[in-house]
Design goal:
about 15% helix; five-stranded mixed sheet; DUF167; about 30% strand; alpha+beta; single chain; 1 helix; globular; Conserved Hypothetical Protein Mth637, Chain: A
Amino acid sequence: VAFPKFIGADSGGGSLRGMSDSVVVNVKPGSRKGPLVEVGDEGELTIYVRERAVDGKANDAVTRLLAAHLELPRSRVELISGATSRVKRFRVSR
């Protein structure tokens, strides 16, 4: 599993194994490429989902896919900002 960069007050960035607790992802809703998580060279995440950005369906799909990618229960991944944006921030509880 490739780990994304996390952002947190404790560490100023790092990996899942660090002390941080949030991650920023770029979302591509309505994508034929999805469901897919791409991790860039510097740890940035792009998440492709087939669901369209209607009634929170894409947000739910992104949350499920991110939790699966991080091998965590969905209840530990929470959308904290970007509900109507393609750039979203999630809180991840370990």
